Amino acid sequence: MKLNYRDKVILAIVLALAIMVAGFLSLIKPKRAAIKDNEEKLSDLEDKEAEINQKIGLTDGLIKKIDTSYANADKESKLFVEKSLVDTPVLLDKFMCDYANKNKVQVIDLKVDDTATATLNYYFKPYSEVSTTLLQASDINDQLQAEYDKNNESTAEISGRSAETVLSTRYGLTVVGKRADIYAYLRNIKDIDGAVLVTSYAGERYDDGEEEQTPENPAATDKEKERAKQTLTDDTVLKSDIVIEVYSIYKMPKPITD
């Protein structure tokens, strides 16, 4: 078959177009497959990113809870003395030297017990209803029953609390000085920042190193106590036995959440 010039031109154009289409398809098809594969990978990465962002959000919330819990615990811990102060002579120097010298009292004896654990008990009056029958008969609007349920719930909640444990160190001191000075000495101890308590005090007259039989707080009748008080003045020299109890805790470091 013999082709004329016109047919040859048409055939050449068709062949050129076929070559272009084949080349285009050979280049574009792999690219389209790669694009589709990348789109799937991108979708997977976006899902992972969303999951990570969710975890970051949970972590931020957890960090805030940790920081809040620590702040609350640190605030409550300020009620107690740091154990490091008990382990060193800091408090003992206050009892023995600073406050004694300031108030002109003489510490003539000291006993220190070993630090031990102590349970902080709490006291409350449990709610009780004398007659639930009368309560129900009077409760025409169901208000009394609601109050009863609330009070009973509070009692159950308080009674279910566990008693906390802290460290306790007991100091026994015997001091000599004027009654007014000894009382000022006790006030200084009372004003120490932290759980430092004067748990026992007993004083009696002291004359030239000899104890007499007129006590400051004997187990006696009210009349005898009143009579004993009348015989003592602020200038009366007393020998007093004082028990000081120090409640301490370990200082908790701030959690590392950065």
Question: In words, what does this structure look like?
Answer:
- The chain has helices spanning 5-77, 83-87, 90-103, 132-138, 143-159, 179-190, 222-230; strands at residues 81-82, 106-112, 116-120, 164-178, 196-207, 210-215, 237-249.
- Strands 1, 2, 3, 4, 5, 6 and 7 form a seven-stranded mixed sheet that branches.
- A hairpin with a 2-residue loop joins strand 5 and strand 6.
- It is an alpha+beta fold.
- Helix 3 runs antiparallel to helix 6 (179-190).
- It has three domains: 1-77; 82-121 and 163-249, 2-Layer Sandwich (Alpha-Beta Plaits); 122-161, no CATH class.
Low-confidence stretches: 209-213
* Rg over CA atoms: 43 Å
Average predicted local confidence, pLDDT: 77
The number of helical segments is 7
Shape: elongated
Helical content stands at 40-55%
Please state the structural category.
Answer: alpha+beta
Q: Sheet bearing the most strands, described?
A: 7 strands, mixed
Report the portion of residues in β strands.
Answer: 15-25%
CATH superfamily of the largest domain: Ribosomal protein S6/Translation elongation factor EF1B
Overall number of structural domains? 3
CATH-assigned fold name of the largest domain? Alpha-Beta Plaits
CATH class (first level) name of the largest domain: Alpha Beta
Distance between the termini: 86 Å
Q: How many beta-strand segments? A: 7
Instruction: Encode the helix/strand succession as letters.
Output: HEHHEEHHEHEEHE
CATH architecture of the largest domain: 2-Layer Sandwich
